[in-house]
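Trying the structure run again after the queue cleared.
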Amino acid sequence: MRANREPFTSVETHSARPRISARLKASSDPGLPPTDLELPAGQRTPAYRFFEALPAAISFTAVGLVFILPFVDAMLGAVYVLSIVGLMFVRAMLGAVDVARGFLRYRRSARVDWAARLTDLERAMDGRSSLAHPRGGFRASGHAALVAKVGADPHSIMRPSTLFHAVVVAAYNEPYPVIADTIRTLLHTSTKPEQLLIFFAHEERGGPAMAETARRLEAEYGHRFGAFVLVEHPAGLPDEIAGKGANITYAGHRLAEWVRDQAIDPRRVIVTSLDCDNIPHESYIDCVAYEYAVAPDRERLSFQPISLYITNIWDVPAPSRVVASANCFWNLTTTVRRLALRNFASHAQPLTALVEMGFWSKRTIVEDGHQYWRSWFHFDGDYRVVPIHVPIFQDAVQAGTFKSTMVAQFKQLSRWSYGASDVPYVGVRVFAPAARAPFWPGVLRFFSLLEGHVSLASISIIIAIGGWIPFVVASQTGQVTSLVERMPMTVGIIQQIGMIGLIVSIVVFNALLPPRPIHVPRERRLTMWLQWLLYPLTLLVFNSSTALYSQWCLLTGRYRERFDVTEKMAGGRSS
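Done. Tokens:
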């Protein structure tokens, strides 16, 4: 339900601008982004190849040492494994705490009437007192202090009612019901629809069916938004990989042209990129508007909501539910870890910044995560991601059959783990002699990025087999000591204690679950608990294998230049 609020008034508002529905297609070259920001094509430099090979070299070495060290010295092999297991135990405990913190912030933020807080800011700018509404809740004292500050200095923030929210919805060949759900949701947020500019970015490769879906969406919903623009991304454009990054970048250029033609100040346009199955929380846009309006460095920020893969969670197989839960946990965790928080999936960024940097990369299959590094280097390190503690709901992977779902899950995680391609991108820029970004913050981020990809590829394997390898080798070589003999039991005990962290995550996941749909049998509730028995195996089969595969591709120069689109089946509807 849309929250009631006082009508905005501002001499700068464009709310009286006539609503516009337009259809745009390829007519001119949208131009290329700055060359120093784009990923390389073709032959790499020796330095770039070194950093491309680095994640695989470390990951395979880390796993290989489990087998090699016991032959050198069984005790050394045992210490190596125990060190890693102990470190992961500490990280698991800290992760459980941060999952709980992220969940509590999400719950508290989702209860806030962000539209009412925007109205408070508007009234303070006009010298009027706030309207009556609940004053408690998430960061209430900070909001009260901000209202007082704005009352004393009305020019310290940007007037929220003058903001436009451009939403670039990317689609390839998804069915109409899936996309229509997303469009309808945007109509029923707490933000006025006339402030929303919908740019529906669909692929020419999607064929006549996709073009017909676009026209149907425009006919049914176009007149209800501030603008509804169809942008068809032509197939076969040079210097790009056919995928989401190229699609939304093409639409971004069309958006910039449209804003200029409508004489809208681009500093008042915030751009959110959405997959066509995304369901934003009703207060997501108002929450972004609040953070953008009050930030003095707003043009060097991006805004990252929590991606929760639970829209169709009751309908997907158990392994997909486990993978989706792990993704939810990580996204909740990063909202309370500023160094780990980066762009992922759907996020928002000012139009001015996007125009400066040429929008998103057209040469990668992981344009969302790469956007963090593209922005960080464009602004010479003066860039940060603001956590938005409300979610954008997304689908877990679901295809027609169990087998096809597992294949689709593997492809999705393989695409995500190809984010290891950012390691060379960051490495050559951080360690370049003429680097413009600050050196030590860059080094810290580089090693954080590298460690994340190495851990994803190797840790599950080491924990799964590391407890036994030193014992087995020592038994054959006669190097058995009391420590080596107790290795399997010691590792098992640490893993059992570490289950405390998993229990916390399970409780959080069950709190996140939407109500059980009527078509889902009651027995599925039991399998929602039993699925956690698959957690270790699922992480091993999907996370480690996909990460090693992607890193091997980089090591061998077999670059992934095909975007595997995940099949969309939401709420029991299929294509």
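Confidence is low (pLDDT under 50) at residues 1-21, 23-34, 570-575. Worth checking whether this holds up in the mutant runs.
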